[in-house]
Every structure is written in structure tokens, then in C-alpha cells.
Amino acid sequence: MQVEQFMLEFKDIILEIRNTQRLLMPNEFELAYLANQVNISRQSMRDYLIRNYEPEKEYFKKGGKIMVSKETAVSILRKYDAKRQLHSTQ
Predict the structure, then answer these.
(1) Which of 30, 35, 58, 82 could form a disulfide bond with 72, CB atoms 3.0-4.6 angstroms apart?
(2) In order along the chain (90 residues), what is the average pLDDT of each group of 10 residues?
(3) Do residues 45 and 53 lie in contact, with contact meaning Cβ atoms separated by under 8 Å?
(4) Which of 79-88's residues contact partners 24+ apart within 8 Å by CB, and which partners?
(5) CA triplet 22, 24, 28: central angle to 5 degrees?
């Protein structure tokens, strides 16, 4: 019974963290910001978006800048973080 209670409390904490993160994270990111975070050029990031994501849904132009949706940005950051971790362990 104590394990079940702990798991329920743990789940509640995780959900609270996730909801807080959603509130703090913007709904869109500039392509330049993402490129800087993963340490590649803006042109490489643009090419990657064009090859792998759907325009007007996952990325779009806004005020002359290419913007990336929150979900797409998180996906890209996770992918490059996994690559970085893989290379750092070798």
C-alpha cells in the first residue's frame, strides 16, 4: 500500500513539473536560437527542418524569421542532446 501511495504522489509531482514547464516554455522558437543551442549553423538547421518537418505546421515564417513550434523544437533539442551524450561517452 505504501508503494502505491508513493507512486501516486510521484506521478502527481511529475505532472506538476510538466505543467509548469509548459507554462514557462514559449510556443515557438527562432531557428537561430535552436541552431545556437545545438551548435550548428542556421543554414544547416534550416535544411534539416525542410527535409524532416512539415512547413506551416512544424515551422513557419513570422516577421521575416523562421520560427519552430514548441513540439518540434523539443524534438530537435532531444535528438541533438542524445547525440551529444553518445559522443561524450565514447
Answers:
(1) 58
(2) 89 92 89 94 96 96 96 92 74
(3) no
(4) 80/37, 80/38
(5) 75
* Residue 85: C-alpha distances to residues 35, 38, 45, 61, 81 (Å): 18, 12, 20, 31, 6
Query: Cβ distance 67 to 25 under 8 Å?
Result: no
- What gap in Å lies between CA 11 and CA 67, rounded to an integer? 33
- For the record, the C-alpha cell of 77 comes out as 533539442
User: Can you tell me the distance from the alpha carbon of 54 to that of 17, in angstroms, rounded to the nearest whole number?
Assistant: 29
Provide the grid cell at 2.
Answer: 505504501
Distance of CA 47 to the CA centre of its chain: 17
Q: What is the pTM of this model?
A: 0.72
Domain 26-89 top-level CATH class:
mainly alpha
User: How confident is the model at residue 58, as a pLDDT?
Assistant: 96
- Tell me the HSE value of 85 on the side-chain side, using a 13 A CA sphere: 6
